[in-house]
Amino acid sequence: MPDQSKLRLGVNIDHVATIRNARGGDTPDPVRAAKLAEEAGADGITAHLREDRRHILDHDISALMEALTVPLNFEMAATEEMAQIALRHKPHAVCIVPEKREERTTEGGLEVAREENRLAHYIAPLRDAGCRVSIFIAADAKQIEAAARIGADIIELHTGAYCDAHAEGDVTTRDREFQSLREMSAYAHSLGLEVHAGHGLTYDTVAPIAAFPEVMELNIGHFLIGEAIFRGLQPAIAEMRSLMDAARGGARQAAG
Question: Do the domain assignments include residue 95?
Fold first, then answer.
């Protein structure tokens, strides 16, 4: 069983850039947000360079690579353009995500099983360059098995359906999605994959996922940037960090 004390928090700073781009100019600066997140206890920073550049821009990735002392998790679609950018910067990790121009946010997990051969060849140069490769997928055994076969180091489980059901008060769906996340976390770990999770997590939904002993990292962004408007970025992150630590500590005591 993994060391339950090592749950990491990755803070996604995409939507600081969304606000900046709404008006143009240089503020608010996502790099400044990333540095504040570091100070507040973030273990890493996540940034998604979309093909349409709707939030994070190319120069943000360069600036983040130069400024950060914690790892950068570079989210990207499986395109040749993004592969070349990742190979140029060689971030600590790359997370391969599905991407559609018409979507507001990432709507589901990557279809790995259907594109297994292409993705295996796609990620090989990234791994050779020293990047840890993560695949963002639904809590589905078929996709997890395919991720393991193509040589991914990590899977990040999409928690969006669980969080949406919780927000809508749909207890049946919430509990079903939660159970699937629980089972697939354990299954992925049994296959030798490192397990991360993220998408839509809030103060109300984070603790049950943080208590999974197999999960090593949670990536959280939109909610924290929204909370920062009302309470400041560092207090918002510190509260999330506290909830995660309490959940993991409680799980450890229960297991003991």
Answer: yes
Residue 14 belongs to domain with CATH number: 3.20.20.70
Which pair of tokens denotes residue 16?
Answer: 């600081």
Range of the domain at 250: 8-255
Q: How far apart are CA 221 and CA 238, in angstroms?
A: 13
Q: Which residues are part of the catalytic machinery? A: 48, 75, 199
Evaluate whether 92 touches 132 at the Cβ level (below 8 Å). Answer: yes
Q: Number of folded domains in the chain?
A: 1
What would the two tokens of residue 107 be?
Answer: 């709507």
Tell me, yes or no, whether 26 lies in a domain: yes
Q: Which residue has the higher pLDDT, 53 or 99?
A: 53
DSSP calls for 49-117 = --TT-SSS-HHHHHHHHHH-SSPEEEEE-S-HHHHHHHHHH--SEEEE----TT-SS--S----GGGHH
Residue-wise pLDDT tens digits, 65-109: 999 999 999 999 999 999 999 999 999 999 999 975 544 544 568
**Segment 23-34, tens digit of pLDDT:** 999 999 999 999
Sign of the C-alpha dihedral, residues 183, 188, 192, 197?
negative
The answer to whether the CB of 196 falls within 8 A of the CB of 156 is yes
- Say if 138 falls within a structural domain: yes
Q: What 8-state DSSP symbol labels residue 44?
A: E
The overall pTM is greater than 0.70: yes
